Amino acid sequence: MMKLVILGTGTAIPRIERNSSAYLVMTKGLNILVDAGPAVVRRLLEKGFDVDDIDVVIITHFHVDHTADLPTFFFACNYGKVAREKPLTIIGGRGITRFYGGLRNVYPWIEPKTYDLTVKPLVNQSQVYNGITITTAPVKHNPESIAVRLDEKRSLTFSGDTDFSQNLIRLADRSDLLVAECAFPERKVKGHLNLEALDKIVQKAMPKRVLLTHLYPEWDTYKGVLHAPYLLAEDGMEIDI
Ligand SMILES: [Zn+2]
Ligand SMILES: [Zn+2]
Fold it and tell me: Where would you tag: which of 15, 58, 85, 216 has the fewest CB atoms within 10 A of its CB?
């Protein structure tokens, strides 16, 4: 059984109601954090989790609203209540190793002191961790952008930030849940989805449920009605997959 905890459903725009997009996936053998934008470490605390509870961090791309709390995360692993001993894996798209190296250059104090860190690029590949298969595919946003699929008995796909993407259609095929960015309900902005573009993906991938996230304030005044399989995400939501 996988459980999804929504740590944030927002964007680069700082808002009280919507933290930058991030998610915690809990499985029997593994806790996975998907994206680590501003205040995500604190959001984990609010849900009763510490950085030490996370086994794998997946970074969908390097924009600040998806990565700013990574140094906070690493720093807490070294200087938290107890120094971390459990191994940590960071998965990302092309350039994740260079990106981590850049963070380490400006923040030398994040270099792991007491635990093993693996920084792993994963593009168009699968990797199995404790019974969870993690598969990624490049999507259309930044050169390093990936969508991520997690398979155990059930399947959960994260679009990451993306425009319309054939790779996402293939990756999300018949997922039990697709967590999809839908930055704007109606306006189409390059590099992001609106409802119309997302619907073209959903018609082909046929996920059982679709959770809309990465929501700009235009959603506050949207007057349309969402029908199944769509559901609008809220910060703090918890969903059994
Ligand atoms: Zn974003
Ligand atoms: Zn982005």
Answer: 85
